[in-house]
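2024-03-11 09:14:02 INFO worker-7 job=invfold-0412 stage=load source=structure_tokens
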């Protein structure tokens, strides 16, 4: 299947600035490839500094009218966008599988998941409440109002090319902000398809602007240097997030940073073994392990360790590796050659350090960018594979003795995005939930993200929250009003 089989109204090979589909000022383009077979899908503009400045100009000019648009009207337009995404969900899913690689059952799920944020914030747009406070004296009244922060810049990754965009765009638009988005150059077509539907939904010119570019450093610098950009939202690596954090200091921008993770998945002796294995499989191997919240280290208590490994191995061996467009495929490719080389090197080094290969451990014959689903037993916390984000279908399993050791191992990382644990003990649930240094915790659950809950991390995993009412607040400023002279 080629990209030509997708609804032609969704396939755009242009950026979008101020209501116009356009090419890069330089004329440069980026070639986009299918990771499953290497086929070229098409080309998009390789936009640079001048294009980014033009997009910020457009967002700045559109801000006054959009922020003055009533929340009910903004909600109506968001709902139009949501309805169009649902109408085109199958084409959006197939387009995503073509450029990102994950199986169709996952891309179908992501389209619905991404759309849920638009639906949620269409509803939340009407609920940006202010407050009235008890005045300090009888002649005064004190209150606060919520107003949009202004122009927003958003930089999104390739691993969830639909949902990472809607999680930022929906609350920004609901709050009354305008936005400039730079999607990943690995997966631009999914982003541009969303843009096409937003235009069809009636979102006014300049409210959303989309820059496709391989020049991440240059585009990011324009976004951080421009004082008109009042907020930057970035999902990606901790290294790049720190650079953007520093670059934003001169203009004191508000930041939302969803950065790297090193999620522990802890299984206690009293856990429901079947449920724990099922949770580990979906948490670790969803999107071929290429998620920031996936289980990066699986910690299993002594008493259940061997039984867990045996059951886990049996389930992992059931994966069908192949092109995501095939109906029976359950595990697709990784995103590029650099990823496959990194994964292979990490697995090899872990074995040289004493880890035991249970299953997998090598590239898969399905194609150049496929890696066999892998389990490593006997991993210790000091090994590189337990310290770094793997971002691939490799599960390192660590043995632990008691609660204190599990907590110590889990927290021994600069990251704090997501953690998971399985236990039937009511008291242990509270103890672990409070002791683990993470922004999100799955308790007897391997998937935790949804539109109603605040998504985000602590420590070096980032700042701010996406989803929930907190996600809307991240795109608004609180203004305090003190009224005097009341008689």
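2024-03-11 09:14:09 INFO worker-7 stage=emit residues=487
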């Amino acid at each position: 299947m080629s990209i030509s089989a997708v609804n032609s109204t969704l396939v755009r090979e242009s950026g979008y600035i101020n209501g116009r589909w356009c090419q890069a000022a330089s004329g440069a383009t980026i070639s986009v490839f299918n990771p499953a077979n290497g086929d070229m899908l098409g080309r998009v503009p390789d936009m640079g500094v001048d294009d980014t400045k033009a997009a910020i100009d457009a967002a700045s000019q559109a801000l006054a009218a959009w922020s003055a648009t009533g929340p009910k009207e903004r909600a109506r337009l968001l709902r139009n966008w949501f309805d169009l995404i649902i109408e085109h969900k199958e084409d959006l899913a197939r387009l995503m599988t073509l450029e990102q690689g994950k199986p169709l059952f996952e891309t179908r799920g992501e389209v619905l998941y991404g759309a849920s944020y638009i639906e949620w914030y269409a509803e939340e747009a009407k609920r940006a409440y202010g407050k009235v406070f008890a005045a300090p004296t009888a002649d005064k009244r004190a209150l606060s109002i919520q107003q949009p922060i202004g122009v927003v810049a958003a930089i999104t990754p390739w691993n969830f090319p639909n949902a990472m965009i809607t999680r930022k765009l929906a609350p920004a638009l609901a709050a009354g902000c305008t936005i400039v988005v730079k999607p990943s150059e690995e997966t631009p077509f999914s982003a541009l398809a969303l843009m096409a539907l937003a235009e069809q939904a009636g979102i006014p010119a300049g409210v959303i602007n989309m820059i496709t570019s391989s020049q991440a450093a240059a585009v990011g610098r324009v976004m951080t240097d421009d004082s008109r950009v009042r907020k930057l939202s970035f999902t990606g690596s901790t290294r790049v997030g720190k650079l953007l954090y520093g670059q934003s200091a001169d203009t004191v921008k508000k930041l939302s940073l969803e950065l790297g993770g090193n999620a522990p998945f802890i299984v206690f002796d009293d856990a429901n073994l079947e449920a724990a294995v099922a949770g580990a499989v979906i948490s670790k191997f969803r999107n071929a392990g290429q998620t920031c919240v996936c289980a990066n280290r699986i910690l299993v208590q002594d008493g259940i360790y061997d039984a867990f490994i045996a059951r886990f191995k049996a389930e992992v061996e059931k994966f069908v590796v192949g092109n995501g467009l095939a109906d029976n495929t359950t595990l697709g490719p990784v995103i590029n050659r650099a990823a496959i080389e990194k994964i292979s090197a990490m697995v090899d080094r872990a074995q040289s350090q004493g880890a035991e290969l249970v299953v997998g451990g090598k590239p898969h014959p399905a194609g150049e960018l496929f890696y066999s689903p892998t389990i490593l037993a006997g991993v210790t916390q000091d090994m590189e594979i337990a310290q770094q984000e793997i971002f691939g279908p490799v599960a390192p399993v660590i043995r632990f003795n008691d609660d204190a050791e599990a907590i110590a191992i889990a927290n021994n990382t600069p990251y704090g995005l997501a953690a998971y644990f399985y236990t039937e003990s009511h008291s242990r649930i509270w103890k672990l939930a409070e002791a683990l240094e993470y922004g999100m915790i799955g308790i007897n659950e391997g998937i935790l993200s949804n539109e109603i809950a605040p998504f985000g991390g602590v420590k070096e995993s980032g700042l701010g929250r996406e989803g929930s009412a907190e996600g809307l607040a991240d795109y608004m400023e609180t203004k305090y009003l003190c009224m005097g002279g009341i008689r």
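2024-03-11 09:14:09 INFO worker-7 stage=report msg="The first helix runs from residue 49 to 68."
2024-03-11 09:14:10 INFO worker-7 job finished
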